[in-house]
Amino acid sequence: MVSSITERQKELLENLYRYIISTGYPPTFEELREQLNVSSNQSVIDLLAKLEKKKLIKRNESQARSITILPLGYEVLGKPPIAPFLGATSAGVPLQAIEISGEWQILSSQVAMLQDNVFLLQISGDSMINAGIDDGDKVLVKSQKEFVSGDVVLAKVGDESMVKRFISEDKPPYLYLKPENPKYEIIYFTEDVVLEGKVISVLKNGQWRMIS
Amino acid sequence: MVSSITERQKELLENLYRYIISTGYPPTFEELREQLNVSSNQSVIDLLAKLEKKKLIKRNESQARSITILPLGYEVLGKPPIAPFLGATSAGVPLQAIEISGEWQILSSQVAMLQDNVFLLQISGDSMINAGIDDGDKVLVKSQKEFVSGDVVLAKVGDESMVKRFISEDKPPYLYLKPENPKYEIIYFTEDVVLEGKVISVLKNGQWRMIS
DNA sequence: AATATACCCGACTATTTAGTCGGGGTCAAG
DNA sequence: CTTGACCCCGACTAAATAGTCGGGTATATT
Question: Does A115 contact chain B (CB < 8 Å)?
Answer without folding.
Answer: yes
